[in-house]
Specification:
Length: 209
């Protein structure tokens, strides 16, 4: 169920030279995080202002690829430059949410506000579930079926076709399904961790006796 998220290692490898160049030039990870928000806002503006069609689809695709690149680079630059901090993680998450909301803001010009709001709320649920699982001590679950990358692809379809309402409804439904899928994965992982921690350590018990 990882969907397009499975392409992340390939995408990161393509950005390796860019990442090293940014590290050498001392570019901070926060700059990249906020650049990603800017690209999201530009994609939202393109959806709002450009007539639907191939040109709009290409423009939104290019801007959202840049947005995903920034989301990939900020963490990589932080790690390679020794700037990783716990607050940096918070900034990264905030940037991801703001970038997506910025794209959805552009959708307010091409779809009813209720539909856009429903898509916006549903789109946050997969991340909430993943973060809750991580806060409980598990690994953060990622992937689809409609994760961040798939939602970007749906924005491109929206811009290219003009079918704003059907695409946003699909995004909302897919995000809800993704949240449920992630919740099941989190529940299984935490349950297995609980069972493992509850098992007696026979080696230690034998040594003590």
């Amino acid at each position: 169920m990882n969907g397009l998220y499975s392409l992340k290692p390939w995408f990161a490898a393509r950005l390796a030279l860019v990442r090293r160049g940014l590290v050498e030039r001392g570019v901070g990870p926060a700059v990249l995080t906020w650049a990603g928000v800017g690209f999201g806002a530009a994609a939202g503006a393109a959806i709002a202002l450009l007539p639907s069609g191939a040109a709009a689809g290409v423009a939104v695709a290019a801007l959202l690829v840049a947005r995903l690149a920034c989301a990939n680079l900020d963490g990589g630059v932080a790690r390679e430059s020794g700037r990783s901090t716990r607050f940096g993680f918070v900034v990264n998450e905030l940037g991801d949410r703001l970038a997506e909301f910025a794209v959805l803001a552009g959708c307010l010009f091409v779809a009813p506000s209720g539909v856009v709001l429903a898509a916006a709320l549903a789109a946050t649920l997969p991340s909430w579930v993943a973060l809750a699982g991580a806060a409980a001590g598990g690994e953060r679950v990622q992937g689809g079926p409609v994760g961040k990358t798939e939602r970007c692809a749906l924005f491109v379809v929206l811009a290219a076709t003009g079918a704003a309402v059907p695409v946003l409804v699909l995004m909302a439904a897919g995000s809800l399904i993704t949240a449920v899928v992630r919740l099941v994965r989190v529940a299984r992982a935490l349950s297995e961790a609980d069972e493992t921690s509850a098992e007696p350590d026979y080696a230690v018990a034998g040594a003590v006796s």
